[in-house]
Write a structure and sequence with these properties.
mainly alpha
């Protein structure tokens, strides 16, 4: 098993949460200059979160290769993988939407923020499922 996955997974979580907070604040703050700065910070964090999510997905797939798992553990890993693919895909689409479709300092739209919230929630669920894989099934833990 590769030791990189447990280290890499923290980056998309931290970056996506920071991006969401900054972009939500950029939407509601009345000060246009501060909102523009927060929107720019949120945009860059979102793009970095999308790249980090793809790295986490790749490292997780590499970690899963060659693992001999019980049926229950295999199903748990499969569910974790499904959440990870959805979360990474959502972040990637949002990063393209935000990075290529708008000025980085523009206030985000309401539909964008709704989808961002859903993607961050999917990422949190992915992390929760990954934690269950380690602590409930002992996946990736030295015997």
């Amino acid at each position: 098993m590769t030791p990189w996955h447990p280290m890499i997974v923290h980056f998309p979580l931290a970056l996506a949460l920071t991006a969401a907070l900054a972009l939500y604040a950029a939407r509601i703050l009345p000060d246009a200059q501060l909102a523009a700065r927060l929107a720019s910070v949120g945009t860059w964090n979102l793009c970095a979160a999308a790249v980090a999510a793809l790295a986490a997905l790749g490292s997780g797939l590499a970690a899963a290769l060659g693992q001999e798992l019980s049926v229950a553990a295999r199903q748990a890993v499969s569910l974790h993988l499904k959440w990870a693919v959805c979360a990474a895909f959502g972040l990637l689409l949002l990063a393209v939407w935000r990075g290529a479709g708008n000025d980085q300092d523009a206030r985000p739209s309401a539909p964008f923020l709704v989808i961002l919230g859903l993607s961050v929630a999917a990422l949190i669920e992915t992390g929760y499922r990954g934690g269950l894989n380690v602590y409930l099934y002992g996946i990736g833990v030295a015997r």
